[in-house]
Please model this.
Amino acid sequence: MCVLIFYLMYLFDVSGEKINNEWEKLRNALYGCYWMNKPEWFKKVLLIMISCNNSPMEVKPHGLFVLNLRNFATTINATYSYYNILNNFKDN
Model:
């Protein structure tokens, strides 16, 4: 059962990481856009898009935690630590 839960959690975290990576690609494309000899409307739209993409894109289900691989690794480490603590009490 735990393996299934960790697998599903991994799939959700990988999806969140992919969304974050695509946001980062968009942000880099906007900052690297050639805008010097473009019309004024293009510069204004580019400025609006850059200001809207200033904060990082994060997937937060119910605002509790962020779906990314760092969160998955933290959860696995905490689970293993709790398992070791409980296993230590079982032997005593």
Observations:
- DSSP finds three helices and no strands in the chain.
